[in-house]
Amino acid sequence: MATKVKKMLFILSKATIDNVYAAFIMANGARMEGIDAEIFFTFFGLEAIQKKKLDHLHVATVGNPAMHMPTLLGSLPGMEAVATKMMKKEMEKLDMPPIGEFLEILSDSGVSLWACKLAVEMFHLEEKDLIDDLDGILTIGDFYNRANEDGTQMLFI
Known about the structure:
Largest sheet: 5 strands, parallel
Shape: globular
Strand content: 15-25%
CATH superfamily: DsrEFH-like
CATH topology: Hypothetical Protein Ychn, Chain: A
Helix content: 25-40%
Number of domains: 1
CATH class: Alpha Beta
Number of helices: 6
Radius of gyration: 16 Å
Number of strands: 5
Structural class: alpha/beta
Order of helices and strands: EHEHHHEHEHE
Strand order of the largest sheet: 4-3-2-1-5
């Protein structure tokens, strides 16, 4: 018999708008279903929780097959900005909150937000560089220990 999902742990490694919103929407959906949720921000995913960067995330136009455009076209100056503007406009139509507001919603709903200790040190960040709603800075081992219970699923984004 399958165990009901009780906790979802998301590892966010890239701070492109599509990856960030995917993690946020799934974590929010988990909470709405009564499932515990946590997000571990590592490597470039840390940009989603850096005060100076979270409002300036972009859509990746190069190497993104879902863009349905040739790599050369995606690499032209201004293409990333245009794609980002278009995606943000579509998200506004769906009443999607901006990244900073979404982080507050997640925190208020009980989603735990963690920064990766190794990545924080590698990018020479300090806790003051990160959002106030952050629950802390963990090693990956500490994060894995949070998965040590029946009904826990982990998803790498």
